[in-house]
Amino acid sequence: MLGSRINRLAVAGALLSVFAAGCGTHAGSSPPPSDPPEALSSSDPFPVGQLEGNGELAPAPAPSKPSAKPSATVKKVNPGGDTGGQKANTNDGVPNLGSGTFTVAAGGTDLTGSADAGTLVKYRVEMENGIQWGANPVWTTDKLATEVDRAISAPLGWTASAAHPVTYAPNKISGASWKFQRVSGADYSVTLKLATPGTVDKLCKAVGVTTQGIYSCRYGKTILLNLRRWLKGIDGFPAGIDFHAMTVLHEMGHFLGFDHMKCPGSGQVAPVMQTQTIALNGCTPNAFPFTEAGTFVSGPWASS
User: Fold this and answer.
1) Rounded average pLDDT per 10-residue block, the chain, 304 residues
2) Which of 36, 42, 37, 51 is nearest to 203 (CA)?
């Protein structure tokens, strides 16, 4: 009896020693790095998050093996900016400030692109409330959603990747393809918001990006489109270029994982990921990622 009790005590002591050693190991190790903060809800007037300037959505490396789950489409991205030197014409009649809150466009779309494409991107469309349009064309959330849908579903847009998978080594993108669907609920990959210059400036300034009343920015899973750019475009930019499509597809390209690209050569077609509204650098303007022949238009890597 006494022997068995001693044996039990010995076993218990050994277990306590092992447990203590394990605790000591964890206590002395460094905690894993935390993820960057998520963007706040779209109902918050001025959320603080990660964003970049000039209507250029900062990119993230796309997975080499795309997943069909929207939450896994794109990794979180680091903040970045590419604001130019242009100053806003504040006498152009564009309303400067709305309420700072947003309304989500109702409803959604069927799947856009091939069901066989690798990665599903669920996007939401929102517009700032309280905009006093004056003599400007009035944009409603439904009208905005229709325009964004048109750009997303363009034959030469990102959906062409299903037939022509994209490889771009500088961003570690290999054989990638995407399909899209607009939604209005909480399960989304990215949201595109049209906001007044004043609201964009406030949102961007909160994280140190100066948008100068004319540029756009991004944070977290949000793309903010500057109303001044949306209404007025760029002085001197060719009228035949689909400016809205170029803006939406460029920003979506950043979300899909692309940084900026440089002009590949004088007289060649500009990549949609080139900052064409700042400088064409000898390239010809272009609103779409693909040519009619199915070629992905790329150029040398540029920082974002």
Assistant:
1) 43 38 34 31 37 42 37 46 60 92 98 95 98 95 98 98 98 98 98 95 82 84 91 79 93 92 97 91 96 98 88
2) 51
Between CA 230 and CA 226 the distance in angstroms is: 6
* Cβ neighbours around 233 below 10 Å, total: 16
Q: CA distances (Å), 3 to each of 10, 55, 190, in order? A: 11, 79, 68
What does residue 152 show for φ and ψ, rounded to 5 degrees? -65, -35
Residue pair 58/258 in contact by the 8 Å Cβ criterion: no
DSSP string for residues in 36-96: PPPPPPTTSSS------STT-PPP-PPPSS--S-GGGSS----------S----TTS----
178-182 and 217-219 as β-strands: parallel, antiparallel, unpaired? unpaired
pLDDT digits (tens, 9 = 90+) for 112-151: 999 999 999 999 999 999 999 999 999 999 999 999 999 9
pTM of the model: 0.74
- DSSP calls for 170-205: GGTEEEE-EEEEE--SS--SEEEEEE-HHHHHHHHH
pLDDT at 11 (0 to 100): 39
Reduced to 3 states (helix: H, G, I; strand: E, B; else coil), residue 29 is: coil
Give the number of other CB atoms < 10 A from CB of residue 175: 12
DSSP at 161 = G
- Domains of the chain, by residue range, sit at 70-260
